[in-house]
Amino acid sequence: MCDKVTYTTQREVSGIITKCKSASSRSRTPKRYYYCGNCNGWHVTSQKNKSKRTNNESRNKPK
């Protein structure tokens, strides 16, 4: 299990990012989401995408 907030679906986590971007005046807001194979859930991060993948794809994304 992870110590991070975990979302169950990609759609749910995508909506969270949209909501945070529009509602927050902070400079550090979630920028992307990623799938976590450790907890089989989705997390958000404020870090920029580090890979060449686009559209919030993840290497660990379930099939």
Description:
- The protein has about 60 residues and is α+β, with helices and mostly antiparallel strands.
- Helix content is about 20%, strand content about 15%.
- Strands 1-2 form a two-stranded antiparallel ribbon.
- The chain is globular and about 30 Å long.
- The two termini are about 20 Å apart.
Summarize the structure.
With 63 residues, the protein is α+β, with helices and mostly antiparallel strands. Helices cover 22% and strands 16% of the residues. The chain has one helix at 10-23; strands at 32-36, 41-45.
> Radius of gyration from the CA trace?
12 Å
Largest sheet: 2 strands, antiparallel
Average pLDDT works out at 79
Low-confidence stretches: none
* Total of helices: 1
Oligomerization category of the chains in this entry: single chain
Q: Which structural category fits the helices and strands? A: alpha+beta
Arrangement of strands in the largest sheet: 1-2
The backbone outline, from C-alpha atoms, is globular
Order of helices and strands: HEE
The level of helicity is: 10-25%
The total beta strand count reads 2
Distance between the termini: 20 Å
Key features of this structure:
single chain; 63 residues; alpha+beta; 22% helix
What's the topology here?
Blueprint: H1 10-23, E1 32-36, E2 41-45
Antiparallel strand pairs: 1-2
